[in-house]
Amino acid sequence: MRAPGFWQNPPARPGWQAYVLAPLGCLYARMTARRLRQSGMRADVPVICIGNINAGGTGKTPTAMALIALLRARGHQVHVVSRGYGGSLSGPVQVDPARHSAADVGDEPLLLALQAPTWVARDRAAGVQAAQAAGAAVVLLDDGFQNPAVVKDLSIVVVDAAQGFGNQRPIPAGPLREGLAAGLARADLVLTIGAQDLFTTPLPVPRLQGTLVPMETGMPWAGLRALAFAGIGNPAKFFATLRGLGADVVVEKPLDDHQPLTEALMARLMAEAKAASARLVTTEKDAIRLPEAFRGEVLVLPVRLQIADDTALIAALERLGL
């Protein structure tokens, strides 16, 4: 489902819908706060949570990939634990890209498993225990900021630099999974992602600023006629990135986040691309969900997170002995 437009209204003018839904939003925030009072398991190794306060995609997967690379460069064996959204397996199970599909474990864990040992577990405490037993020296929790099952040693809240926290109201009155003040009080760092930096919310913790930069693949994007499709949190960002590389995006197909790429859907997209004399292009995360028959037909544009100044992040890691 797409987020309602009024969720992104300025906090000072949240819209009449937000006022009407405010009582439900307050109830949702109270339920979240009550759940978070539960005590969690403390792991034997540092646990770093990459989460968000907003519902939907904010860039957690690129953040996890960047942290994997950073921790490995610092000599640490890192494992990832994920709920496995969109997958059927409850776990704990270690993701095997040669054996599992996105339908089994979810697209994000499948992508992260190409970077580091990744575990899917609906019970996050059981997933962390499995990672520890397999030799993890540090565990990245992919999402789970509002889940109290595991004590976090470092929590990084990821937010879109342009959209921020929207109208700053809890669901369904706004985009937040909990009250903003309560969420920020548990965060250690806030990472804003995006070249268009409109973020103005005062923060009680250090802010990191990041951008998603296309990887050099040798693909000559300039002048390429493209039918671009993306089932991520903000497909418009992907389309803008392609245009920034010089591609001629003649058709944009925004899909729902994690939307299954069925053979029927891909056949329709292929036919439309052919009619427009264009190539199909998608994101790295979407490519993981492609049916086998279409993987050779779709171009993939991978991106990686670059943090402008990681001083606060490095200091936080060093406090954990990492």
From TrEMBL:
One of the record's GO molecular function terms: ATP binding
Catalysed reaction, written as an equation: a lipid A disaccharide + ATP = a lipid IVA + ADP + H(+)
GO cellular component terms listed in the entry, alphabetical order: plasma membrane
SUPFAM superfamilies associated with the record: P-loop containing nucleoside triphosphate hydrolases
Primary enzyme class: transferase
Pathway(s) where this gene product acts: Glycolipid biosynthesis; lipid IV(A) biosynthesis; lipid IV(A) from (3R)-3-hydroxytetradecanoyl-[acyl-carrier-protein] and UDP-N-acetyl-alpha-D-glucosamine: step 6/6
EC number: 2.7.1.130
A Pfam family it matches: LpxK
InterPro entries: LpxK, P-loop_NTPase
Keyword Lipid metabolism included in the entry's annotation: yes
Protein residues bound to ATP: N54, A55, G56, G57, T58, G59, K60, T61
Keywords tagged on the record: ATP-binding, Kinase, Lipid A biosynthesis, Lipid biosynthesis, Lipid metabolism, Nucleotide-binding, Transferase
One of the protein's GO biological processes: lipopolysaccharide core region biosynthetic process
HAMAP family named in the record: LpxK
Family: Belongs to the LpxK family.
Function of the molecule: Transfers the gamma-phosphate of ATP to the 4'-position of a tetraacyldisaccharide 1-phosphate intermediate (termed DS-1-P) to form tetraacyldisaccharide 1,4'-bis-phosphate (lipid IVA).
Name used for this protein in its record: Tetraacyldisaccharide 4'-kinase
Lineage of producing organism: Bacteria, Pseudomonadati, Pseudomonadota, Alphaproteobacteria, Rhodobacterales
